[in-house]
Structure formats: C-alpha cells, structure tokens
Specification:
Length: 167
C-alpha cells in the first residue's frame, strides 16, 4: 500500500532499507530520549525491520518507509498497540530533516489513514517528557495529554487523539 502527501511518498518497508535503518538508529541524537540512549546495533536494526515487515504481513498496514524527492528520510505510521487502547503512532526521521514540517505532514496523513481506512477510534502517541519537539508535533495535530505511563522503565507521556465521526 502506497500513500502520498504533497511532499512525502509512503510505502511498506523493504529489505533494501536495512542500511538506512541501521545508520538512522546508530545516530546518538535519534536515540537520546530513550531510557538507555545507546545506538542500535546492526542486529537490533535488522530485528526492527523484521518486526515492521511482519506487522504489515499480519495486519495489512504498519509503519511506512518515508521518502521525499526519491530519498529515504525515515519510518513512521500507525501500528496495533499491544499495551494501550487504540493504534500506536510512531515516527523516526533522519535529523537532517527535522524542523522542516515532515513529521507534522506524516502524522496528519497517518491520522487520516487511521480514521478513513482503518476506522480507528483512537490513536496514541508516546513521548518522553524531555522530547518537547515531538510532543509539539502531536499537539499541533490534535493530540491531548492523557497521563504519564512507565515505558521501558522510564516515565513517558501518553497523548491521545480521538477520531471524530468514527462509530
């Protein structure tokens, strides 16, 4: 399943994405807000890609590979949450593309997909308290702070977006 926005091309992740994914999650600034801010090993990145591809096979949707101008810039979208009610929104963009509105564009498209295609009633986003930029993106897209939860041993803010007009 392929989707487009005005600047983004969104597609299912493929095996050929492994080198970019490994380089992305080896960047210290990308993993700085984790409880253990250690960059991923190539094996951890391979497992991440395998999980994303398995989610697609099982559910028919998942986190997209995000491209702009025919260049891979990150991964993101909605997945089935096993811990919280609703779909889970997540995204990771290459730092060279931070601050350009790509995250907001992705989140808005993911919400439209969740509402219109999946008929989801609720989408959640999990953000570490220190990650103010990510929280601002979610709030700009209509997410509201719901509560603090513990995730992987660290306090995390759970924000939610309730879909209007979905029965």
């Amino acid at each position: 399943m392929i989707r487009h926005t005005s600047r983004l091309f969104l597609r299912m992740p493929e095996e050929r994405d492994i080198d970019f994914l490994t380089a992305l999650f080896s960047r210290p600034e990308l993993v700085a807000h984790r409880p253990d801010p250690r960059p991923d090993s190539s094996e951890e990145s391979a497992r991440r890609l395998a999980r994303d591809r398995a989610h697609w096979r099982l559910h028919g949707f998942g986190r997209w590979a995000i491209e702009t101008e025919r260049r891979l810039i990150g991964f993101g979208g909605v997945t089935v949450s096993t811990e919280f009610e609703g779909l889970n929104l997540s995204y990771h963009l290459h730092p060279d593309y931070w601050g350009s509105g790509y995250a907001t564009e992705l989140v808005r498209e993911a919400l439209a997909f969740a509402r219109n295609d999946l008929k989801a009633k609720r989408v959640v986003g999990l953000v570490r308290p220190i990650n103010i930029a990510s929280r601002r993106v979610l709030e700009k897209c209509g997410f509201d702070f719901e509560r603090e939860v513990m995730l992987h041993g660290a306090p995390t803010h759970l924000l939610s977006h309730r879909m209007a007009g979905v029965d």
